[in-house]
Amino acid sequence: MNTLLLITSAPTSIHAWHAFRLAQALKAKNESFRVFFYQDGVYVANDLQWVPDDQRNLKEQWQQLDIRLPVCVSAALSRGITDSENAKRHKISQHNLANGFELVGLGELADAVQTANRLIQF
User: Sorted alphabetically, which keywords does the UniProt record give (predicted)?
Assistant: First the structure.
């Protein structure tokens, strides 16, 4: 079964953590799945977001999972998150997309939805 995890919750939400834990479990069972960060879920890819030492860092947890981490480019740009290519294109002075995350278009989400047997939104 191919599962799509659509993450729309901010990293401070318990729902975002549930999405990560499910991805972790699916990977451990070698089950086929994809993730897509959309709406406020894109905030997890912000490399400049500070997390106190006594809290878990969701961005680092996703990076350690070692899977493809596509992020909606439009949602990210509208929330102040960009990679170096889009920073140059849109004349933004800096980039802050965390390592391991990738800005992609909504076509990728459409493809993922079409090929998924189940979609779970967090």
Answer: Cytoplasm, Transferase
CATH tag, 3-121: 3.40.1260.10
Mean pLDDT of 42-58: 93
Selected catalytic residue, list 69, 72, 81, 109: 72
pTM: 0.94
Phi, psi of 67 (to 5 degrees): -130, 170
Q: Any catalytic annotation for residue 29? A: no
Mean pLDDT of the chain: 96
